[in-house]
Amino acid sequence: MRILLWHVHGSWTDAFVRGRHEYLLPVLPDGGPWGLGRAGRDWPDSVREVALDGLDADTIDAVVLQRPEEIDEVTACLGRRPGIDLPAVYLEHNTPKGNFPFTRHPLADRDTIPVVHVTHFNKLAWDTGSAPVLVVEHGIPDPGQLYTGELPELAVVVNEPVRRGRVTGTDLLPAFAAVAPVHVFGMKTEGLAAAAGFEGARLKLRGDLKPRELHRELARCRVYVHPMRWTSLGLSLLEAMHLGMPVVALATTEAPRAVPPEAGAVSTDVGELLRTANRLIANPEEARRRGAAAREAVLARYSLGRFLADWDVLLAELRPRHPGIRQPGGRTSDIRLPENERLEEQILVPARERKNP
Question: How many other C-beta atoms lie within 10 A of the C-beta of residue 131?
Answer without folding.
Answer: 20
